Amino acid sequence: MGEKPGTRVFKKSSPNCKLTVYLGKRDFVDHLDKVDPVDGVVLVDPDYLKDRKVFVTLTCAFRYGREDLDVLGLSFRKDLFIATYQAFPSMPNPPRPLTRLQDRLLRKLGQHAHPFFFTIPQNLPCSVTLQPGPEDTGKACGVDFEIRAFCAKSLEEKSHKRNSVRLVIRKVQFAPEKPGPQPSAETTRHFLMSDRSLHLEASLDKELYYHGEPLNVNVHVTNNSAKTVKKIRVSVRQYADICLFSTAQYKCPVAQLEQDVKEGANKEVLGILVSYRVKVKLVVSRGGDVSVELPFVLMHPKPHDHIPLPRPQTAPTFPSPRLPSAAPETDVPVDTNLIEFDTNYATDDDIVFEDFARLRLKGMKDDDYDDQFC
User: Fold this and answer.
1) Taking the model in full, what pTM does it have?
2) What transmembrane ranges does the database entry give (predicted)?
């Protein structure tokens, strides 16, 4: 038998190693009707804690400018959501039921481990980061979610890096199971001093595409006019809507993130909304360009949950043959469990701890804090 895979748990400690945060995952899925809860455990050194409290915060922030431009008290960062949880001492409110992972971690880590729990609102945007340019410095623009645990006497007290932990998590969406209708568009151009027209029709083979999958574009041109179609240009564009105080739109070649706008969502949408379109353009001689756009969805497929096969609890038993003997027959106990099966596969020993390292984009410069302790 090979070694069975354990439950992976991410951990990250403060610089002074007095505070450690444990999370079961770093990507939390938005299922459109609900969002995966953020459940974790924080381990504290009681000798270091003394009369202080342990707080855990979840922040959704939108950075829309370079960090080196934060001057004169003007910050290019807006906090979209902030939630605070007092992990120790626990609040007098009725405690929330522990998740299975929290229960296993508390049994393994001991009495100085304390759970925390957050619920991410559905109207918050998903995590997205704009790829920084070669000359950009500091943190990249985008929407990120950060968990921060620290020790302090109160929330108003200024915390220090040495006794705090920062973990960047992601709110993601996967492709829906039911795809939408097939995108198609058509247009007709009538030219001056001519009673004949130019008709352009374009369509895609489907609406939903996965990353790395080819796009099949069907183009049909009916030219009854006297004009000549010189070229047919087909391009794929990514549109990033920057939603803050006003909406600004930037277009660039296709990137790798997708944000859907849910029906019935809050009208006050903040963050970066990414959409994709295929543009088909006809270059017509002395008649201007004729074009149509086909919107489509680019997402990652939903990962399949691995369900382990059930293991037998006991070994099968078979009757033991007996040889005739002149001696008086006595019942000799027979050990039928000659093969010992591992029945403790769901215990706390199969937890595998992995250091929480922040995912970095290509070309992005890291800050010293993350380089040293990620």
Assistant:
1) 0.65
2) none
